[in-house]
Each structure stands twice: as structure tokens, then as C-alpha cells.
């Protein structure tokens, strides 16, 4: 461990304690001051480096020093260690086993960007090891995992930011959308529609040799042990350079064993904003109905009957009864984004646009001064990592906290259970359990594979 990083950590923790004691909100101006003094930069490590892991690490070097990286693919690990050294002129330590990072006392926080089925285990163990956590969305594979993370956040007092960066970034379009609702510009909300895109199935995928450098058993981790499967055709564009059809790499999102399909992948973004706009971040739906859906393989009792093809839904329309019986529609059809409809008007928002009459009227009737900041809870941070570091210093909840994330993600999890079983589900948002359906309740949790249980 270098003396520079020891000094960074001591100064950062000293600043954190002082600000927390003062009980003030640390906005971007405070973060900018910290950037000017290297000794006040927190010390980070990233676990899971392909695609999103590399992206959040790269954009976070402006605010933090990275001393370690971990990945179960030796090629991905080596490439990212070299990239980070080139950018920062400091070579981070590289590990195949993330637990080596958790053993280090010079790491203030970890950023987790593994496939979803690893999120909970690493997050819980990191918090118990005294680290603050930034974890990519969707946070969990099951509702029970969300409850466990909440318990450990409360138990340890660690700061936990979920990577739903739409709450901070995208030119504040989503923050302005919430501000429009709070200012009464569309009246009372009557319906919300989330367009989250469909998916495609796959051909039958043969079991093939594991690519050199990939520790397949550890990649599977808590999930059932199965063969590595892939076809020769390679993916292009974002996430490229890996097999287009596989049960690993980019395509793990299409398997219920590792993810929740499009429902959780894009739903974790747009259902989050929809739930926020509805003022339902501390509750949930009363009913979830699968109006229509298409699964790429046959299912029996909620489980796919084959294991050699993608198994998450390709098309769907889900209706969730939110508080006040306001319908929240989640669909694979139409434009990707969120349509809010109220008694006085409607508007549409996604990462590229915020449109509708209430938006046009801002030219002559702007939002009150500070309306967006009121939504955010203080000065809007430069990016999502900056907000996380603000929260580390103040010990207050970040903009994308565990509780609000889990509440909205419960809607997505329930939608997937409803699709898998092919029936409507009644949900008790207070008890957080499905009413009168033991089979459906059995999908609220999953067992981890032996030797990959969470170490508590």
C-alpha cells in the first residue's frame, strides 16, 4: 500500500466525519473543492469491468483514486488495468477474486458492475467489510435480496448508491419531469406508460469450450452450475467482441438465472422514474396483471423446460395497479421512455427528449426557481458518482437509495413472476408478499449454489 493512498484515505475520512457532524448537504461546489486537493479524494475499487464497469470507472476517475480492479476474466482485467494506468499514471492492483479488495483497509468504497446475480453477495460482504457501495442497476435478482441489502445498510450505516443514473444525468430531463409533476403542470396523474423495448430469442446454443482466461465457475457463482454455451457469430457495437448468442458476456441479460430480462434491465430505469413521479417510492402496487406476453421457450410451473436458449420475455404488456388505482403500464411496444398523463395534460420523457404541451408552456411559464434542486434534495451533482461521494461525506442518503430502488424494482420482479406463472398477482406492499399464492411467493427468493452463499 502506497503512502499516498494512506494519506488520501486519512484526509478523506477526516473530511467525511467533519461534514457529517455539521449535518449539511454537500453539493457540487464542495466536491469541486475536494477535486482541487488530491488528499481529499476517496479511494475506490471496481468489481466487474466489462462494459458498464469500465464506463463507470472511467467517468469516476475525476472524483476518486482507483487502487484496485477485479474481474473473473483475465483478459478483461488486464485490459482495464492497462487502460486505467495509462489514464491516471497509477497502476491499480488487479484481482481475480473480489474478496482480496474487501480485505484492503485503504479502500473507502467499491463500485460493482458484475452481472445481476452477483450484486447482492458482493454488496452485502462489502458493507460488512466497512466499504460504502455503488452498485449497478438492477440491484437484485429477487425481492428477498432487496430486503437483505436494506437490512445490512441499516445495520452497518454504509452509504449505498444504486447506478440508476437517470436520477442525476441526461441533462436533468428526468428531474425536470418530476418537477413538472410536483408543480401541478399536468394536474392529477391518471396513467403512466413505460416503454422499455422488447428482446429477441436465440437459436439453440451448444455447450462449447470456455474462452481462455474466463473463470466460468466463478462467473456462475451463486447461480446453478451449467455448461458455457455460445455460437460463433460475434456481437458488434456496444458490448461487442463477444459471442452474440451465449449464456455469458453481454447476453446474460436474456436469462432468468442471471437477470430479469428487459423488464429489469430497462425497467430499473424507467419504472424508477415512473414510481418517483407517482410519489410511490415507499410503497408498491396492489396488483400486477400480465395482459400479454411472449416467452421464447416453453415453461412449466414457472420454470423453462429447456436450458439451451434465452428464456426471458421477448414481448409483454403488464398493468400494475399503483396507489390510488393509477395504472402503470410496462410495455415492449412504442417509444422507449415514459409517458405521464394527467387531468391537465401529458408529457413524454426519455434520455433524448422531454416533450409535450406542459414542456412547451415553460417558455412563458417557467418552473419556480429551485424546483429541480428541490426534487434532487439539494444542488444537482455533476454526475451520479459525484452524488455518491457527496453522500459519503455527509453520510446522508444518495439520490438513488436502496429503499426507493427496491420498492420500484419489486414491481418489475412481480411482473416477471406474473409472466412466468401466466397469471395475475395480488401484492401486499406493507407485508411485501403475494396474497394467497404460495407458488408465486416461492419466487420471491432463490437459493445460492453451495460455496457461493453470502458470508454474513
Question: Overview of this structure, please?
Answer:
There is one protein chain. The chain has 16 helices and 17 strands. It has helices spanning 3-22, 28-36, 52-60, 74-88, 99-102, 116-128, 143-156, 173-182, 216-220, 261-265, 267-277, 357-360, 371-376, 384-394, 402-421, 438-441, and strands at residues 43-47, 65-70, 93-95, 109-112, 132-135, 160-162, 189-195, 287-294, 299-300, 303-304, 315-322, 326-331, 337-342, 346-349, 354-355, 425-428, 433-434. The strands form three sheets. It has a nine-stranded mixed beta sheet. A six-stranded parallel beta sheet has the order 3-2-1-4-5-6, with helices on both faces. Helix 7 (143-156) packs antiparallel against helix 15.
Summarize the structure.
The protein is 35% helix and 17% strand. It is built from 16 helices and 17 strands.
Task: For this entry, give a set of tags.
456 residues; 2 domains; Rossmann fold; nine-stranded mixed β-sheet; six-stranded parallel β-sheet; 16 helices; single chain; alpha/beta
Low-confidence parts? 1-38
Distance between the termini: 27 Å
**Helical segment count:** 16
Radius of gyration based on Cα positions: 22 Å
The share of residues in helices is 25-40%
In total, how many beta strands?
A: 17
Mean pLDDT: 92
Described by strand count, sense and barrel closure, the largest sheet is: 9 strands, mixed
Proportion of β residues? 15-25%
The outline comes out as globular
**Strand adjacency order, main sheet:** 15-14-13-7-12-11-8-16-17
Total tally of structural domains: 2
Structural class by helix and strand composition = alpha/beta
